[in-house]
User: Fold these one by one.
Assistant:
Number 1:
Amino acid sequence: MSARLTPVIAGFIPLLDSAVLVVAAEQGFAEQEGIALKLVRETSWANIRDRIAVGHFDVAHMLAPMPIAATLNLTSLAVPMRAPMLLGLGGNAITVTSELWREMAGAGADEYGDPASTGRALADVINAGKVVGKAPLRFGVVHPFSGHAYELRYWLAAADIDPDLDVEISVLAPQIMADALAEGQLDGYCVGEPWNTAAVIAGAGRVATYKQAIWPNSPEKVLGVTQKWANENPETLASLMRALSKAADWCSAPENAELLAATLSRSDLLACSKSLCLPALTGNMQFDQRLITQIPKFLTFSGGVKAMPSPAQGKWFYEQMVRWQQVNASAEALKHVAEVYAPDLYGEALGLTPVLDARTPKLFDDTNH
Amino acid sequence: MSDSLSILVIDDNKIRATIIEQGLRDAGHDQVILVHRMDGLVRQIADINPDVIVIDLENPNRDRLEHMFQVSRAVRRPIAMFVDKADRGSMEAAVDAGVSAYVVDGLKRERVKPILDMAISRFRVFSKLTDELEEARSELADRKTIDRAKGILMKSKRLTEQEAYDLLRRTAMKQSRKIIDVAQSLIIASGLLDD
C-alpha cells in the first residue's frame, strides 16, 4: 500500500504556521492524495534555502519573500523558485520590552495595538531619546527577506521613523528573541507566534502591534518549490497542494485548535508548552500580563481560494525589497515576481479560477506601498 | 603579512570543533580560531578578520551571521562558498556533511577549497563517530533490557539464567521477532501484572 505512495520530502522551521504541513503528514491528508509526506525540521532559513537548492528537500515551508529573493538571485545558492500556495496568513506581532511600552503608553499608544497609534507613540519616544542623546533602539527580525522585516520597517516608516538610521535592526533566530528581549539585548522584535506570547508570559515584553493590523490577510509563509521541481513533478505537486488545502481547512476549524496546539507543542516539533501555542491558534492574544484580546484572523490557515497566491502580493514584497535597497527596481524583475506568485498551479490543482486583482494589498495607512 | 589563511570555525559542538581544528593544523594551517558562542561575534570577527569562516549547519545563528556579513562595515565581506554554482558537487557534499563555509570575497577558489574539503571530511568522521557511539549505547541498553527480562523469568518461573535466555530466544524465533522485542513485551506485561 505505502509502496504506491509518492514520497515528498518537506523542510520546515518549527513555528505555528508549519501546522499545515504537519497536519497533512499526520492526519492522513497527504496519504489520501497518494503522497508519503516526510517532514524534516530545520534550524535556519539558510538551511532551508541551501537544502532545497541542492535537492535534499522537494518542497519547503518558506518565508513569503524567500522564493522571490531566490528567483531574483539576491541570496547565495539562488535558484528560480515558485510559491504556488500560501501556507499561512498573518501570525506575526511586534513585541517591545515592558519598559519601552511604558514610555509608548505615556505617549498615547493604543493598548489594543493600533499600528498608527503605537507607531506615532514610538516616534515620540525615539525623538525624545534623541534629544538626550540616547542610543538607538534595537529591533530584531528573523531574516532580511521576511514579512517580519518588511512589516516592522513599514510600521516604523509610516510613523516617520527611518528603519536604517533611527533604529538598529538585526537578525536573530525566532526562538531566541524572547530571551534576547529579557536579557536586554533587544528593545523589540517582529516575529511569528508563539514567540511573542513567550515574551509576554515571561513578563519581559508587550505586544505593540501585529501583522493582521498592519496588512490584513497577508501571506506569511508559502510552500516553496524550485521551478525545476515544479516542472518535473507537476502531478505530485498538484496532489500535494490538494492535500495541503484540506489540511489547512482542518487547521482552521476551531474545534481542532486544542489538538493542533498539543501536536505542535511536541518535542519533535516546536518543543514548547501547549499554552504558548493556543493564543494565536484561537485568536485570543495576550498583549501583556493583564490584557487579553480577541483578534479574529490573527493567524489564519485556509485551503481553497484563500491559499491561492496572487501576483499583487508578490509585487508588494518586491516593492519592499526595492524600497529598502535590497534590489534595484526593474520591469524584468517584476515580471519574474509575478511568475513566482502566479496562481495557475494551485488553481489548476484545486479546480479554482484565479482571481487576479482581487487581492491588492490594503495596508493600515491605506497607501499602496 | 603572512601567506597562510586565517580560518574561523564556529561550532557549538566543542569536540567536533577540536577535530576540525586539529585537521586544519595538521594540513599546515596555523591560524585557526574556534568560536562556540555567538555573543559579540561581530566584534570578534572584526578583530580576527578571518579569510574563511566555517560553520555547522545545526547552528541556528546562520541567518544572523549571513545578515551580518551583508550589512556590517566592520568586517570584510564574506560570501557563501560556491555561489558561482560551478562547484555543485562540493556544495552538495558540504550540505550532506552538515557544514557551510563563507570566504572573503575575491579569494581564489583553489586556495580555499582544500580547507572546505578538510572540514567536510572531518564532519563526516565526527558523525560516523557519533553514530557508532549511539549504536554502542543502544546495544548496552538492549543488553540491560534482556537482563531484566531474564530476571523476571528466573524469579517467576524459577529458571536458571541460561534457561531464561533460551526461553526468550525460542519465543522470539517462534514469533519471528527479535529477542529485544520479546524482552520489552515481557517487561511491560510483567509491569501490568504487578499493578
Note: Chain B has two domains: 7-131, 135-194.
Number 2:
Amino acid sequence: MNKIFAQLIVAGTITLLPVLGGSTVSFAAGRDYVSIVGSSTVYPFATVVAEKFGRTSRFKTPKIESTGSGGGMKLFCAGIGVRHPDITNASRRIKASELKMCRDNGVREIVEVKVGYDGIVLANSKKSPAMHISRKELFLALAREVPAPDGTARAVPNPYTTWREINPSLPAVKIEVLGPPPTSGTRDAFVELVMEEGAGAFPWIKALKKKDKNEYKRICRTVREDGAYLEAGENDNLIIQKLEANPSAFGIFGFSFLDQNLDKIQGSFIDGGQPTFDAIADGSYAVSRPLFFYVKKKHVAVIPGLQEFLDEFTSDRAWGPDGYLADRGLIPMPDEERKAYGDAVKNLKTLQNL
Amino acid sequence: MSAPRKTTSELVRRSLARRYRAEKRFRAIGLAAIITSLACLATLFITISSNGYPAFFQTRIQLRVFFAPDLFDAANLSRADYESLVKRSLRNSFPDVSGRNTKRLLYRLVSSGAAYQLRELVVNNPGLIGTTQEVWVPASDEVDMFMKGYVDRTTPESDRLIKDIQLTWIDRLNTDKRLKKVFNTTFFTAGDSRDPELSGIRGAAVGSFYLLLITLLLSFPIGVAAAIYLEEFAGRNRWTDIIEVNINNLAAIPSIVFGLLGLAVFLNFFGMPRSSPLVGGLVMTMMTLPTIIIASRIALQSVPPSIREAALGVGASRMQTVIHHVLPLALPGMLTGTIIGMARALGESAPLLMIGMVAFIADIPGSITDPATALPVQIYLWADSPERAFMERTSAAIMVLLAFLILMNGAAVFLRNRFERRW
C-alpha cells in the first residue's frame, strides 16, 4: 500500500515537470500587456483607468505595481526593453538625479504627463471639533527644531507639547499626528508644501535659504521624532481607524481617503481653506500637489496597447472635470493645462530638462 | 539521640496533599493556556467572519432595459455605447429626475458593471435588440453599503456618500421590489477590480495555485532527495556538519531575504518575467526547502534501523533498501512536512513584494508566466483601498485564505494518522 503511494507521487512529479518546462520557454519573447510601476497615491487612479481600458478594449489589462514614487523611478530608469516597465507613476515631479539615472541607462526619451492634483489633508475624528490652523503653526508643531519662543534667530529643539502652547486659540490637547513614513511621496509633499511654507513665515529662516542651504533644509524638512509625530505606515485606512479610536489625534493622508470617510473624520482648515473637492480644484485650499506619470517613448511603438492606454487616460471621460477619475477624488487640471498635457501625449513630446 | 526518625511512608503522607495541590495547579495552568489560545483564535474567527460574511452577498437592482435599435451597429455589437443604454434605462425608471447633478447621482445607483453585463447579454443574443427586458444588474458599492446597514440615515447629508434624493430612489426601488440581495458569485469568478462590487478573488486564487504548484514540484523532489542523501548515504564529517548547520540556518531566515535573492538572481540575472508565478514559485521553493529537508530527515530517522538491517541482510542493495523499504515508511512524515511548508508558502506575501507580485492585475492568469498576484497580496491590496466596501471584501478574502490553510493542515493531519506507522 505504502509503496504504491510512494510510486504514485514520484510518477506524478515526473509527468508534471515537462508541462512546466514547456510553458517557461516563452518568456524571452515580447510582452503583450502594459507594465506600470510607481506611486501608491496615483495607484488608485491609474488602476481605474487600467481596468476600464482592459474591459473596453481588445488589449489586456495593464499591470500596475504600487512601489512608491522613488522605487518606481528606479525600476523605470533601469533600462529600455520589455523587461523594464513602460510607465511610472509619481506623486511628485521627476528629480534631476533620476533624470540623469534614466539617461545613463539609455532611457533618453521620456514623456511627462501631469494627470491632476491631489489634496493633502490633516484630519481628525468627528467626535472632536474641527481645527483651524495655519501652516506656520503646523511647522511649529511638527518640526524637530523650531525658532526659539523668545523671538531670537536661533533654532531650539521643539518645546511644544500641546497645540495651545503654539497658539492660544488652538485646543489644549497633546500634539499627536499620525502620518506617512519618509519613503512616502505624501510625506515629501507634506514637508514641502506645509512645513517649508510654514517655516518661510520666519524671516531669518527664509534668509537662511540663500546663506546656508543645508541648514535651511535641515530646519524646514526634519520632522520631530519625540513621539508627537507617529509614523503610521503607508496604510491610510489604518490611520483612519486609529483616528476614530483616538479623537485627540490627527492624521495626514490624501484627499480621496477623506472623501470616502466623511462620516467618520473631518479635514482641518489650513490657512482658512477647507479641504473640499471644489476648494482644492480652484486653489483656495493651498495644500495640493500635482500627480504625474512618465512614459518611455521608445516603448510606445513596441508594447501593444500602450498608445491606446495613453489615449484612454488623457481622454475627457477619464481625467476631465466630469470624468470617472474625478468621481474617485482626483482633482482635475484646469482646461488649458489639460489640453497642453493632452497634446504632449498625442505628439509624444519628450522631457528635455527640468 | 535526635528526634525519632520519620518513616518514609509518613513523609510521603505529609507531602501528599502538597503534591496533589501542585499537580492540580499545574493542570489548571495548562488548561488556562489552552483556553486563552482558543479564545484568541475564536475572537479572530468571529471578527473576521462577521466582517467578511456580508461580502458573500451583493445587492442587485432590476432595470427595465429597452435595447433601442438606434444604439447598435450590427457589425460591431461589442463596441456599442452600453453606458448610455444603462443611463437611459435609469432615466426611464425615474422620469421626474432632471438637472445634470441630480442625473449624475441617479447614475451612481448602479455599478459600472451593469454596462459590461448588458454588453455580454447582447453579444450572446443579438435577438434582444428591439425588445424590452427586465435585467438584474449589480448595484454600486455605495448602494450596497447602504443596503447592508453601514450607512446611517440620521447623519447629515453632507457627510454621507448616499444623498437624500438617492435615499428616496432606493426606498422607491425597495417598495417596487426592484432591489434584492443575492449570493455574490462575482466574488468567486472575477479577478481584481477597482469597483468593489465587481472584484473577486479568482485571479489571486489561480495565482496562488500556480505558485504552489511550482513550489511543490520543485521543493518536494529536491527536498526529499537531499534528505535521503544526507541521512542514508552521506558520511558524518565536517562537510555534512556544515551543510546541516546551513540548512537549519536557512529555515530561520526572514522571508523577505528570499525575495531579494529572487530579485537579484531570477529577475536580474536570468531575466525571467516580473510578477509571474514562476518566479514566485522559485522564491517560495528556496524558502520551503529547508523546512522540507528537516522534516524529511526526521521522518527518515524515525524508521527503525532493524528495517534497513533486515533488507540488507536478505541481499538488497542500499538503494533498494532505501527506495523499497525506508522511503515508503518515511513518506507520510515527509508529506506532512511538505504540506506545512506549502501552507506557509500560501500565506507568505513579503518576498512577493520584491519580485513584483504586489500589483493590480485584473486578468486571470492563464499560465505560470502571466502576471499574477497571490491570496495574501490581494488581502493587502484591498485593505489599502479607500472605498469602504473593500473592508468586508478584505475579511472575506481572509476567510477564503483561512479555509485553504485549514484544508491543507487538515490534509497533513489526515495523512499522518492514515499512513504513519509507530514502532
Note: The first helix of chain B runs from residue 8 to 52.
